[in-house]
Amino acid sequence: MRETELHGPGQGRLRIVTDDRGTDILDAAGRVIASYGSDRHEEMIARYEEAGWQIASDRAVRPPILAHTPPPPAPDTDTVRGPQDLAQPDAEDA
Predict the structure, then answer these.
(1) Among 44, 42, 55, 45, which Cα is nearest to 8's?
(2) Which of 7, 19, 67, 86 is spaced 20 to 30 A from 45 at the CA atom?
């Protein structure tokens, strides 16, 4: 999911949010003011920039459903073994 916040000259702020469902434009109160069923993020940024809006932030964000889910642990490369390792024991095992 991608989220871009734009600030306009004397016009407040907007957020452009794109996820698997498409692209939404939200006003400062979080109300959807425009919605598109496809990824039109770059197009919307370009349109608002042409109208004088400036990007305040542009980032990838975790979808709300995953916000409280911890990321998976990083693999410990010293102990991870795949099928190719099964035929040959580690030096520790020998």
Answers:
(1) 55
(2) 67
Question: What DSSP element (H or E) covers 82?
Answer: none
Rounded to two decimals, the pTM is 0.65
Whole-number pLDDT of residue 63: 67
Are 19 and 26 within 8 A, CB to CB?
Answer: no
* Residue type present at position 43: E
Helix, strand or coil for residue 39? coil
- Whose tokens are 């975790």? That residue is 62
Say how far apart CA 69 and CA 63 lie, in whole Å: 10
Is 77 within a domain? Answer: no
Q: Is residue 79 part of a domain?
A: no
